[in-house]
Amino acid sequence: xxxxxxVWLDPAAQARVLAALxxxxxxxxxxxxxxxxxxxxxxxxxxxxxxxxxxxxEDQFGVWRWWLAxxxxxxxxxxxxxxxxxxxxxxxxxALVRAALAGPPAAAPAARPAAAAA
Length: 118
Hints:
With 118 residues, the protein is of the alpha+beta class. It is built from three helices and five strands, in the order αβββββαα. The protein has one domain. Helices cover 31% and strands 27% of the residues. A five-stranded antiparallel β-sheet has the order 1-2-3-4-5. A hairpin with a 6-residue loop joins β1 (30-31) and β2 (38-45). The longest helix has 18 residues, at 85-102. The relative contact order is 0.21.
């Protein structure tokens, strides 16, 4: 097959779609990185702002996945395959709700997903 890859395989296009979806959900999704397609996420957690990142990167098998670095979760968590934008948005919302219920605002993750996954 020749020509450009379908949009669902393009990490930059999927990151833009995820950012737009998170923005519609009120989580201020926006570009978060230069080296790899990344979405910066913010949401209110117990009166403060919780920040995190959702990055698109390949796993050890060469499958493009979303990597989540969100408050209240593991430092880096493998998420859904790249084409599963809605599942990823759901995971982000759930993580931010858990962070809000946990108490004081969480700090931004120390490591960006792209740096840790690479």
